[in-house]
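Note to self: keep these together.
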Amino acid sequence: MRVLRFLSPSLLIAGAAIANAASSSWSFSEAIVSLHGKGASGGSKDKLSNHAPLSKPIALGASDSLKVILTAVEGKTPKRPHQALLLVKDVETGLETSFPFAVKDSGKGKLDLAQKDLPPQFLTTSKPLLATLLLGSFGPSAAFSNHVFNLDLILDPSVPISPVEKPLRYGKLKEIHHIFRSDPKSPPIIITLVFLAAAIACLPTLFISWLFLGANVDHLPRALNSSPIPHILFFGSIVALEGIFFLYYTTWNLFQTLPAVAIVGLVSFLSGSRALTEVQERRLAGLR
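Structure:
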C-alpha cells in the first residue's frame, strides 16, 4: 500500500506531462508584417494574429518589399520548427507557392518578399492573394496552418505583363499512328541494263584469260570421276547463290535472303574444300 501511495503521484505527474505534450501545438508570437515602399508610397507595419487575418489586404507594389518577422513557439516555448513557410495562393486559379522562413534556434524567423519573387501567373489575378502561415515539426505537437493576411498586387502600368506559357502537364497523350516507310524499290531498269551489259562484256575477257593462263578443260572428266559430288555441289552452290541474289534484287527481302545464303554458303564451303583438295592431288601428281 505504501508503494502504491508513492506511485500514484508519480503516475499523475507523468500522465499530466504526456497529456500536456499531446495537447501542445505550434504557433507564433510577436509576429509583425511590415511593408517598405519607395517614393511616395511609404510603408506600413501590422501585428499578425494567430487566429484571425488582418482586416485589410496589404498592397504590394512593383518596387515594394514585404518583411515578416515572428517567433515560433511549441506550446509556450520558443523553438525552431522543422518547416516554417508562408503559403501564397491565388483563389481564382487555385495556384499556390510557398516561401520558407529563415529561422534561428531561438525560434526567431524572418522572410523577405517582393513582387518579383512571385510567379508570373499571379500577376494576372484580379483578387487579393491569400497568405497562410505554416509551422510544423516532428513529434506529437500539432502543426499550425492559418490564414494571416491578404496580399493585393499593385502592378506598374508602364511595364507590360509578359504572356504566361502553359505549364507542362504529364498525362495521357493522343494516340500515335505510325507511318512505316515503304519497302525499298529496285533501281530503274536502265541502270540495271547498263550494269548487266558491263558484266556480260567481261565474259570474253574471262575466257581469254583462261586460254592465256593455260586452263585445261580435258581434266573435267577426271575430276568428275574422282570427286563427282563435291564438284557438282560446289558448282551448283555458286549458281544457287547467284539465283538468291537475283531473287533478293527482285522480290525477296533481307529476312528471306539471309537464311538461304547461310545454307547455300555452308554447302559451298564444304564442297569447295573437298573439290580444291582433289585439284591439289592432281597438281601434285603432275597433271596440269
